[in-house]
Prior knowledge:
- The chain is α+β, with helices and mostly antiparallel strands and about 180 residues long.
- The termini are far apart.
- The chain is about 65% helix and about 15% strand.
- Helix 2 (about 75-95) runs antiparallel to helix 3 (about 100-120).
- The radius of gyration is 42 Å and the shape is elongated.
- The mean pLDDT is about 85.
- It has a domain at about 125-179: Nucleotide Exchange Factor Grpe, Chain A, domain 2.
- Strands 1-4-5 form a three-stranded antiparallel β-sheet. A three-stranded mixed β-sheet has the order 2-6-3, with no helix packed on it.
Amino acid sequence: MANNHSNEQQxxxxxxxxxxxxxxxxxxxxxxxxxxxxxxxxxxxxxxxLAAEFDNFRKRTLREKTDLIQTAGESVIKELLPVVxxxxxxxxxxxxxxxxxxxxxxxxxxxxxxxxxxxxxxxCEIAALNEPFNADTHEAVTNIPAPxxxxxxxxxxxxxxxxxxxxxxxxxxxxxxxx
Length: 179
């Protein structure tokens, strides 16, 4: 019986040795779960802060773009004001003057000043008259019979001039095409 008792004791010791490491492992897992939970909370906090920072960046950038768009034309308008002043002075002279040649000369000077200003800003007129019709750069308003065979498919008249701003068409010329 002593042998039996010692066998039972040995089995119990073996079971205890198996259970205790499992409990210790569970305790270690609990600690690692807490560490993982802390790490997860830390990452979540970092994520939320990054998301908030990005949202603030997006809003700030949108606000800056809006401000830029609203004030972008300011310098252009300031530079156009002297041309407007010249037109006003010219209109006063038209009312008071009987010399139409002087009025025409004055208006030509103002017109040239305006064209020079536009050219300095990269605005150029699209040459269309007597050019071959191109659907990519011209807008055909109507077709008329061509006076000669060499004018067929060419622009016969320009109803409204077209303009390019730095290689981008900002207004297509409205033209009459010979057929």
